[in-house]
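Homework help thread (please don't just give me the answer)

Our assignment gives two proteins as sequence + structure token strings and asks us to describe the second one. The first is just a warm-up. Here they are:
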Amino acid sequence: MPHENSDEAIETVADGLRLQVGDLPGDYAPVLLKAKPAAYVVGFTAGVSRALDIPVGNHTIRTLERGTRQGLPREGDLGQRLADIATGIILDGSVTSEAPLNEMREKGEAEGRAFVEDRTPPSLLKDLIFEE
């Protein structure tokens, strides 16, 4: 059963992702659709959920999928594809067991909390896209 604030969390995740990527050029799709950006989005979603006092559990995957699909450009179905990768790394446990992905998740979580608290524009996803 979804938490009563799940819709707010989904919208907040979507808002944060929109702020990060803006109008993402299609050329960056192959870079975006990798595990590091997906781990960041997992962390960002968890950070938003925790800052809204929503327990991080099964609903987090729903929040992740819907927030990513709503927040990222629809060109090439980027939101859905990144949500699928992110959900996969949650389910296989690599987001907490693999050091580079765990680090990305923690950075994403910090930015998710900051975004809820004072609307600090998140930036790490954009950095991942343009620097890799």
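The one we have to describe:
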Amino acid sequence: MGSGNPLKARKKLELIDYYYFEGKGNVPPLYWQQKPLLKKAVNNAEVYSEDIQAASLNFQKLNEIGNFPFLTIIFTDQYPEYKDENILIASPRTEAKMLEKDIITLQFRRKLADSTQVWIIDVLSSGLLDLKPSSKKGSIVLQELQGELTDDELKAFFMIVNKVNSLTPEKLDKLLSDVKGLSTQFFTMNTKSDAPFVPLYFQEEKSFWYLVLRKQTLI
């Protein structure tokens, strides 16, 4: 049995098994199947599988990125693929890199809960994992970022975005501006404009000082 909360204790009796899960927030989904599941901890996730090999997948990118909100991952062919904020059910044949993208995508959905701009989530998850975006606009936006930022700036931007708790297009522009040292409204313009794509432009913010001279008439 698996749940969207961490498993704290289990006791197997003659007629019934007891499972104790503990967490905060809304009651998470529960998953049960008759065939036993093996359990393994990976980063901040609990991985359940019928096969020890599937449960031992190497999530290299997730380990490099750091902790993410708790998630239960279940590898099985006995239930259709499923994703929500707390639990992810996938085929045992799913590649680790694609599963990593699903996990990071769920994480960015939490951060962009009020956003309908799916391409932003596509850009952030793909950029963080060095994968190709699945959407056309996501591909164009990521290429634009790669063309205007150095490798170090791009890496720094995605790592900072991954660490913040919540995101909006305006906040993404602020983070991007801080990394580049120049101002931009790239994400905001691409969410508000009717055009399919607005190119990435940076502009330097300048401060102006004015000297006011007052002429006095002597009598």
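TA reply:
I won't write it for you, but here's a hint about the kind of observation we're looking for: The longest strand covers residues 7-12.
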